[in-house]
Amino acid sequence: MKSMTGFAALEAEIETLKLSLRVRCVNSRFFEFKPHLPPDLYPVESEIKKSIQERLKRGSVDLYVHRKKLSKSASANVVADENLAKNYAKTYKALAKSLKISEELEMPTLAKVPGIFNVEENLKLSKSEKEFLFSSLEKLLAACDKERLREGKAIADDLNSIIGALENEVKQIAVYREEANADLEKRLHSRLEKFGLKAEVDEARIAQEVVIQIDKADITEELLRLKEHFKEFKRLLKAKEEVVGKRLDFYSQELLREVNTIGSKSQHSSITKHIVESKGMIERIREIVQNVE
Predict the structure, then answer these.
(1) Nearest to 3 by CA among 26, 19, 30
(2) Which of 75-79, 90-94, 259-263 has the lowest mean pLDDT?
(3) Where are any strands of DSSP class E within the chain?
(4) pLDDT tens digits for 267-292?
(5) pLDDT in tens, 132-180
(6) Residues 6 or more apart from 8 whose CB is under 8 A from it?
(7) CB 4 within 8 A of CB 26
(8) Could you read off the pLDDT of 49-84 as tens digits, one per residue?
(9) Does residue 90 register a pLDDT over 90?
(10) Which of 66, 231, 239, 285 has its Cβ near the most Cβ atoms within 10 Å?
(11) Residues 8, 139 contacting (CB under 8 angstroms)
């Protein structure tokens, strides 16, 4: 099991290229890729996304890539702006003539004019540089994945602890179930006595009504479903499958639904106390599983 939260950074270089990479992952319902790339890497953006998605199935992923071409790559071209040079020379000569200055325009002077000579770096990746980029990306993702697995283990331990405590709450609810049924029968007799109707109502009719009321308040099915949900939840926590977050979220919702149903059926104060405790634990579970891949 993995967390959706992770971070990793990497710096690497070869003879012609230096790379600085960072990846940051946070929880999200789906996979969301947010690239922060230099323009020359736009052509390989879709390939980068595919590589990341092979490892990170869910979550919002920010990838930052900075690259620097090294001088050994001989990737720079010097380009002259001939039109600018001609305009400069023409204006220079016109001004010299106007001011009656005989000094001729020489190349060293022209070379100092901003914009006449420009250095254009060839940023296109070579085959070896592209391979280096993706091998570096793989190392970065492996480091991030290691962090996500570490945090995932901590999350699993936390969830196991809460599920264990929740099971104990449900066991206490099951213990109080018979007491709640007896209280229901006692309340019915008490109401009949209060209104002076007990003598007028046939005992068989009272027994029948008690059975009806107990059946309406029966929580056996909910307790059985909770038991099955606990079993499946714990199986997912131990499963070798990496992507279990959505299923854990589903079962946490089912746990809450069953506990709410028990709460609506039972009027017993001791059961109500355990329902409140159980709902608090389930809300904590639902919060935690939002960060599980």
Answers:
(1) 26
(2) 75-79
(3) 6-13, 17-26, 31-36, 59-69, 76-80, 117-121
(4) 777 888 999 999 999 999 999 999 99
(5) 999 999 999 999 999 999 999 999 999 999 999 999 999 998 887 766 6
(6) 22, 23, 140, 141, 143, 144, 147
(7) yes
(8) 999 999 888 899 999 999 887 765 555 677 788 888
(9) no
(10) 285
(11) no
Distance of CA 287 to the CA centre of its chain: 12
- CB distance 279 to 260 below 8 Å: yes
Determine the Cα–Cα distance for residues 98 and 38; give it in Å rounded to an integer. Answer: 48
Burial of 14 (0-12, 13-18, 19+ CB in 10 A): middle
- CATH 3.30.230 in the chain is located at 6-72+126-147
Class in CATH terms, 149-289? mainly alpha
Assess whether pLDDT exceeds 70 at residue 196: no
Other beta carbons within 10 angstroms of residue 111's beta carbon come to: 11
pLDDT of residue 1: 87
Task: Output the average pLDDT for the chain.
Answer: 84
Which two structure tokens, joined as six digits, stand for 201? 């109502």
Residue 111: both structure tokens together:
């070379």
Question: Which pairing describes strands 31-36 and 59-69: parallel, antiparallel, or unpaired?
Answer: parallel
**Which residue spans of the chain are classified as CATH 1.20.140?**
149-289
What does the alpha-carbon distance between residue 254 and residue 129 come to, in Å, rounded to a whole number? Answer: 51
Cβ atoms within 10 A of the Cβ of 81, count?
Answer: 14
The SS3 call for residue 102 is coil
CATH topology of domain 6-72+126-147: Ribosomal Protein S5; domain 2 (3.30.230)
pTM: 0.70
Give dist(CA 161, CA 155) in Å, integer: 10
Joined together, the tokens standing for residue 113 give: 């004019």
